[in-house]
Amino acid sequence: MTHDREQTGLRERKKARTRQALVAAALRLFAERGFDAVTTEEIAAEADVSQRTLFRYFASKEEIVLSVHDQIEEGFRLKLAARPAEEHPFTAMVNAFADAWSELEPADVAAQLQVLRISNDSSRLHGARQERVCSHQNRLALLIARRAGVDPRLDPRPELLTAAFTSALQVAFGRSCRAAGQDNLLEAVDECLALLPTALTADWDTANTPAHTSTPDADGQILPVGG
Amino acid sequence: MTHDREQTGLRERKKARTRQALVAAALRLFAERGFDAVTTEEIAAEADVSQRTLFRYFASKEEIVLSVHDQIEEGFRLKLAARPAEEHPFTAMVNAFADAWSELEPADVAAQLQVLRISNDSSRLHGARQERVCSHQNRLALLIARRAGVDPRLDPRPELLTAAFTSALQVAFGRSCRAAGQDNLLEAVDECLALLPTALTADWDTANTPAHTSTPDADGQILPVGG
DNA sequence: AAGATTATGGCAGCAACTGACACTTGGCAA
DNA sequence: TTGCCAAGTGTCAGTTGCTGCCATAATCTT
C-alpha cells in the first residue's frame, strides 16, 4: 500500500487515480447534499470522467460508497483468519475487529465513519449496505466453521454467532451515529459487544442493569475487548 | 378479515381488490421468471391496470413483495405487545413469533414462504427486505424497552436483544430456504432460537455440540418454544 | 514506429419512477 | 333521481440509474 509506483504501469496508476477521484467526489457530494440528491452525472463530472466511465468502475451508484465499506470488511476477515486458533470464536471476532480498525490510517477511519453517516441518509443505500453486511456475515460464518471444525451446513451455530456479532456491530454503529459525539464508535462497539451475551441470557428486566445505565455520563470503557 | 362487505363502500372494496390483484400477479410472475426479469408494466397489465396506477398503490417494485412481508411483521409486533409482562423479553419474542405464525391461514403461510424464496433471487429485493427487517427490529426494540422499563437511548440491550433475535430468524429463514424440504421453516426457527444463547457463550468449538449435529436427520423439535 | 490491447466517450435505449392534466367513477345530498 | 364533489384512473412527458454498441484515443508491446 505504500510504494507500488515502480511495480505498476502508467495505465494502472491512472485507473487507480480515477477510481479514487470518483470515490472522493461521491463521498463529498453525498455528505453535502445527501445520497439521493446527487446524480451519477454530477459525480462523473466532478471526477472529470463521463457517466459511462463511472459505471465501468462501479456497478451502481451505491457501489461507490460500498466499495469503501468493503475495504474494512475484507480487512476484518483477514485479521480473523490470522487470530490464534485457541481463541473462542466470539473472542476472535472481537479481537479481529479491533485489529482491523487499529491498522486503518486516520483518513480511512474518517471515510468509514462518513460512509456510516451517509448510509443512514438514504433507505436505498442502507438496504444495499445491509445486503453487503449479509454476504460478509456469510463468509464470516464459513471462517468460523472451519476454525471450529464443524460443518456449517449441519451446525447452524457459526451462522448464528456471526449473525449475532454482526448485528451487534450494526447496533453499535447506529447508536454511535445517532449520538452527538463523533469519535465514540469504538466505545459503542466495546459496550455492545460486551453486553450482547448478557442481553440474551440474564434476567435484565429486573435488577442487574449494567453499571453505566444508571450513570449515563460514565466515559470509561465498560469492558476492554482488544487483545 | 372475514365479512367486512357491508361495512365498506364499493370504492374501498374495488381498491382492495386491485391491490390484491397486483400482489397476486407480481408474486406469480416473480416466482415464474425471477424478480429482475419482470417489469412493472407486465405486472400492471396482468392486473388490468396501468403502470401509473401500480405506482399509486406501491411506492416501488420491491414494495409489492414487501407489503406481504409487512403483514407478518406487524402481526408479530401485535402479538408481542399482547404477551404477559412477566415473560422474559427473549421468551416473549419467541412466543410472539409462534403466535403470529399460528394464526396465519394456509394461503398466507404459502405467500410468506414464497416471499422468502423470491427475496433470495434478487440482490436488490434482498437489500430492500433487509432494510425492512431493520426498521422492524427498531420498533421491536422500543416495545422491549417499554416492557422492561428501561430507556432505549441509554441502555443498548433492547436493541441488542432484538437484533440478535431478528438475525437468528434470518439465519433460520435462509437455512430453511436452502434446504431441500419445504415445510421445515418452523423447525429451523425453533432450532436456531434454541441454539442462539449457547452459540454466544458456551465453548462450542470443543465438545458440547448440539445433539442433532451428529444426527442430521432427527425430525423432532429440538426445543419446544410455544407457550 | 506499427500493431495489439485497453480505456474512454457519445449515443441510443430500457426500466423504474414521478408530476401534470384530463377523464371517469363512486359517494352523497338536495 | 339528479347533480355535484371527491377520489381513482389513464395518458403522456420527463428524470434518473444503468447498459450495449461503436468509434476514438491512450497505453503497452515488439
Automatic annotation (TrEMBL), chains A, B:
Coiled coil: none annotated. GO terms for molecular function: DNA-binding transcription factor activity; transcription cis-regulatory region binding. Residues 207-216 have a biased composition (Polar residues). Gene3D superfamilies: Homeodomain-like, Tetracycline Repressor, domain 2. Residues 207-227 are annotated as: Disordered. Residues 16-76 form the HTH tetR-type domain. The keyword Isomerase does not apply. Keywords: DNA-binding, Transcription, Transcription regulation. It comes from the Bacteria. Pfam families: TetR_C_14, TetR_N. Residues 39-58 bind DNA. InterPro entries: DNA-bd_HTH_TetR-type_CS, Homeodomain-like_sf, HTH-type_TetR-like_transc_reg, HTH_TetR, MftR_C. GO terms for biological process: negative regulation of DNA-templated transcription. PANTHER family: HTH-TYPE TRANSCRIPTIONAL REGULATOR RUTR (PTHR30055), MYCOFACTOCIN BIOSYNTHESIS TRANSCRIPTIONAL REGULATOR MFTR-RELATED (PTHR30055:SF238). This is TetR/AcrR family transcriptional regulator. It comes from Streptomonospora mangrovi.
